[in-house]
Q: What sequence folds into this?
């Protein structure tokens, strides 16, 4: 498997524009996580899915953020409208079920978002 | 409340020496997993080591070992014989089953390790 694939790797957009980040998890993984990493706030969990169903979106900062997982191999994180404070690295990660061995989260390369 | 606490924002270690990175956690779930990840300057997240809450022995993976003290809720990472390539950000993470359902993995603030030649 190629691992978790995120696109784009870099995104520069103007304030007010819509931004869509994409993620393809590892095949066979039950869980998908979206994280945001900033210097000030570290690595925050935004939302996670189990078998394509959103379980907890309490980490989503505002209604401007939304995430979907229409099938087991694709998820999107959308920001509309974007603001400069949304600038961060956004990671997607996937994992197997449970909390035992081999349930570590596998991360994509991240999307570096800059809102100007 | 912080569920994962890493109290050392930055650490220095001399090459070839051992270093301990601290991590404490908080959970009421009896079944959980603890993980350490490395993030070099290139930005990718690299899984290093896992410890299960029911594991009797401390986990080891090459030069990495996890000093697990369940009663104290601590899961410190020990890196032996530090190398220059170990300079990176290190994150402690916990996977638990919250009341909201499923399993989630949350991360501490990280410790930046600098290895000196």
A:
């Amino acid at each position: 498997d190629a691992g978790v694939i995120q696109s784009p790797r870099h995104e520069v957009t103007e304030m007010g524009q819509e931004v869509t980040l994409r993620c393809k998890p590892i095949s066979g993984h039950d869980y998908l996580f979206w994280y945001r990493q900033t210097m000030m706030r570290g690595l925050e969990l935004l939302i996670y899915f189990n078998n394509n169903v959103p379980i907890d979106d309490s980490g989503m900062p505002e209604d401007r953020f939304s995430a979907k997982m229409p099938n087991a191999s694709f998820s999107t994180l959308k920001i509309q409208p974007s603001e400069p404070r949304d600038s961060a690295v956004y990671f997607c990660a996937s994992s197997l079920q449970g909390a035992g061995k081999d349930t570590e989260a596998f991360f994509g390369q991240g999307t570096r978002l800059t809102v100007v | 409340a912080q569920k994962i606490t890493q109290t050392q924002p930055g650490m220095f270690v001399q090459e070839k020496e051992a270093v301990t990175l601290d991590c404490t956690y908080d959970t009421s779930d009896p079944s959980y997993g603890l993980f350490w990840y490395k993030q070099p300057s290139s930005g990718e997240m690299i899984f290093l080591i896992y410890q299960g809450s029911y594991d009797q022995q401390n986990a080891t993976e090459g030069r990495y070992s996890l000093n697990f003290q369940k009663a104290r809720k601590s899961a410190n990472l020990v890196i032996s014989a530090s190398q220059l390539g170990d300079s990176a950000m290190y994150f402690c993470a916990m996977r638990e089953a919250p009341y909201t359902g499923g399993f989630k993995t949350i991360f501490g603030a990280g410790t930046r390790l600098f290895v000196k030649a």
